[in-house]
TrEMBL record:
Belongs to the tetrahydrofolate dehydrogenase/cyclohydrolase family. Catalyzes the oxidation of 5,10-methylenetetrahydrofolate to 5,10-methenyltetrahydrofolate and then the hydrolysis of 5,10-methenyltetrahydrofolate to 10-formyltetrahydrofolate. Keywords: Amino-acid biosynthesis, Histidine biosynthesis, Hydrolase, Methionine biosynthesis, Multifunctional enzyme, NADP, One-carbon metabolism, Oxidoreductase, Purine biosynthesis. GO terms for cellular component: cytosol. Its EC number is 1.5.1.5, 3.5.4.9. Pathway: One-carbon metabolism; tetrahydrofolate interconversion. Residues 6-120 form the Tetrahydrofolate dehydrogenase/cyclohydrolase catalytic domain. CDD domains: NAD_bind_m-THF_DH_Cyclohyd. NCBIfam families: PRK10792.1 (NF008058). This is Bifunctional protein FolD. One of its GO terms (biological process) is purine nucleotide biosynthetic process.
Amino acid sequence: MTATIIDGKQLSAQKRSELAQEVVRIREGGVLPKLVVILVGDNPASLSYIRGKQKAAEEIGVGFKLEHFPESFSENELLDIIEHYNQNDEYHGILVQLPLPEHINETAVIEKISPLKDVDGFHPINVGRMMIGQETFLPCTPAGIVEMIKSVGVEIAGKNVVVVGRSNIVGKPVGQLLLNEHATVTYCHSKTDDLTSYTKGADILVAAVGRANFIKGQDIKPGAVVIDVGVNRLDTGKLCGDVVFDEAKEVASYITPVPGGVGPMTITMLAHNTVQSAKQFLLTK
Ligand code: GUN
């Protein structure tokens, strides 16, 4: 079997053009959807992600502002900036790029962002809403993964999903979203005994461990859908996922590539959340 590629770039392009049309309608109502991204320090990976976010915003017609502060910026200064954007009606989305420098408490920062502008879906109120299946901002990577699976017509209800990884950004929420879609979900992680015995039973396998080439072809059930969330940079400079792609594609039915899979969809979902936020703002104006 050779797997069909789930092309995140192509799906993103389609979604971005739909979003661009939605932005035109919102602007006709007198509102320009606008996102502020706040970065503290100069983490090269963060700078690269932010460039992608800016490019997507520009493509869709969403306003974009980068607030870039030095590594020495204090937690209180950051909380004040967030409060400024919480109060500023011109901005519908606020994203604080993670990771933050060690002297800044990530929890305090996330909790400072208004849940109404939390386009990352990281605020505990929005996490709680997601958990009980209420409408809210969904975290971008997990929401993009659900869209990618649905885009190829794979039924999620009743399937065995195995999520490898338990981060707050990806692992935990993607399992929850797939549970909300009526999958049977198992979480595995670095301390799981006999990991292969779980991954081998997965109809849908989500690899979000952050270790290059961690999942091999022999760990995958024939015909499985494989979603690779890993973004690992090798010494050669090449990007690679958590899954050995060349092996997995001979076993799986569908697979996401790295790059060009989950990454572009994550960014597109951020634009989606910003547009939804602006739409909500327009309704209450
Ligand atoms: N750093 C890596 N991924 C993310 C993300 O989805 N949101 C934010 N804010 N920071 C990140």
